[in-house]
Every structure is written in C-alpha cells, then in structure tokens.
Amino acid sequence: MILGLIPEDPFHPKSWSCSSAPFFTALRRIGALDTALHVKTPWENFERLRVIAWPRARWHARYHASPNYFGALTRAAGELIERHAAEVVLQVGAWFSSGAVTDKRCYSYHDGNAAQWYRYYGRGLLTNREMAAHLAWERSVYDRMSGIFVMSEWLADSFMRDFQIPSKSLHVVGAGMNMPLPAIPKRDFSKPRFLFVGKAFERKGGKYLLEAFRKVRRKVDAELILVGPQLDLNEPGITCVGFLPKTDPDHDARMSAQFSAATAMVLPSIYEPFGISLTEGMAWGLPCVTVDRCAMPEIVRHGESGLVAKAEDSDSLADAMLSLASDPNRAKAYGAAGRKRA
Length: 342
Prior knowledge:
Layout: E1 2-6, H1 15-18, H2 20-29, E2 33-38, H3 44-50, H4 56-63, H5 67-82, E3 88-92, E4 105-110, H6 114-120, H7 128-143, E5 147-150, H8 153-163, E6 170-172, E7 193-197, H9 206-217, E8 223-227, E9 238-242, H10 249-261, E10 264-267, H11 276-283, E11 288-291, H12 296-299, E12 306-309, H13 314-325, H14 328-341
Parallel strand pairs: 1-2, 1-3, 3-4, 4-5, 5-6, 7-8, 7-10, 8-9, 10-11, 11-12
Helix pairs in contact: 9-13, 11-14
C-alpha cells in the first residue's frame, strides 16, 4: 500500500493546480492508497520570516527556494511516515525528502523541476548562490528516490541532463484532465472564439497572446475570452471573465459554459510545467493553439489536434490562430482528434 505525501491538503480541489485530489482519489479507487497526508510544519510563518526580502516577489521566490524550509518539511514528513505502516511512500514534488528520513521505498511525481523553472522563467529574483542551493537540494531529493514519475518526456530529459538521474529510474506517465469527460456541444467553428485559461497571465504568455489577438482582429471578427487573470482591459473582442474557482459550483458552471461556447483553446506559455488546461480543452473537443516549449508540444500534436507556434513570438501565434479561424472544417477536425487524444 502507498502513503501519499504532499505539502498541501491532498484532497482539496485547488491543491497541486487542481491535480492532487483526482490523482490520490484514483489511487484510492484502485485499492493502492493507504492514505494521503498534508506535510506541514507549525513553524511555517517563522520560515517565511527567515527569508524576508523586498520586493515581495523576491521574498516569495526565496521562500520557495529555501533549503531550511525544505528541511523543516522533511522532518514533518518523517514523523508522518513513522506513524503509518504503508510499504511505499509516494510524494508530490521536491519540497521535502522522504528518502532522507525512512528506509522504505520512496517515489516522487513531478510536473516540473527547479532547473527548468530557472531556465525559462524564474531567474532574476535570486542570487546565483541561492539558485545553486535550491538545485543542490533537489538533486539530494532525487538521488534518494527508488523511482521518479514525470508527466512528460521533456521533463524526463531534464532530470537526466540537469540532475544526472539515470533513465532507468524515470517513468513518463503523463497526466490527465482535472474534471469528468464532458459531453461535446454543437459548435459553429465559423465564428472563432479563442479561450485562454490560467491565473499566471505573464508566465503563460499573456503579453504575446494580446499582441497576437490584435493582429487576428485586424483580419477576422474573432473573440478572445480570458479566464483566470484580473485585467482592466477595454479592447474590442476581448472579455476578461476573471478567476472561476472550481470549488464554487456556480463558478464551475460558468467555466463549463466558457469551454462550451469556445471554438479553440490557446495557451502560449513562456514556462508551463505541463499544461493541464490543454488536456481539458481537448476533452471539450476544442482545437488547441500552443507553443514549442516545455511539454506543450507533447500534449498538442501539431497538424492533428491543433497547432504549435513559436514561443514568445506573437507573429507566429497570430498565424496559427488565423489558420484555425479561416478554416472551420480543419478546426472541427482538430477538435475531434483532440477529444480522442484526451
């Protein structure tokens, strides 16, 4: 039996980008899970104060890269492991090190890692010494694992190159959507309506999306619906819905309505550990427009279930969006193929 550990409430709908609850619930459903527990320390506020810095973004970055905090979580994980008889420990992420506090077999599951974060997006707020300490911590976690599950080939390659983890220890298992498979609505693909879903608008390529959509609007009467970010925009064709948490039934219904009304999904992230919203878009029968970075090209098959543009390139993104907008039959075919893939 498996003891699941995560530094969040394992069954809260928002934990691990909404993936934790369905993941551990699925393990429980097949009879593999003993229990899943929240790894936390009563000294969390103290750990935050230990790394206080300004501006606030730097403070946030230091907290999320603090070996002292990771050590405190590791001690808390050890206490939980001692109290349970499960033969195997399965942790989410690398915020603590199960392998450092038990002789039981320990495994971990990841959508990203610190090396990729710093490579694509997370530089500038921390010193080289702080980043090196963070990377050294993660290497120590991975070295103690009996096996490592990753969501993508892109991430598996990083574990081998950046942390020297042997390929035999890595298992690419992908990830599923965080919702039941929906019924496919009837759509008029001749009226292009692009849907973006994500709170971290800047990291998810929001700047390039807005630039691309303005170019699209000059040629076709398209719409862009933004779900997640709180933006003060007053531009033709753009609607900002705001954040719609799945924990609120009314908001969840509004989110489903946006998926139902859309004719394409778009996600042009600068850095994206996996891209769950793309799997959800495909599940709704939507063709997807994404970029050639991180795991996104593994999720969306270019020319089959959508189009893959160049990352951080609004011209390339606009061309892909226009390609779908000008060819409703192809958009419909991509959507159908995406549904099968999801």
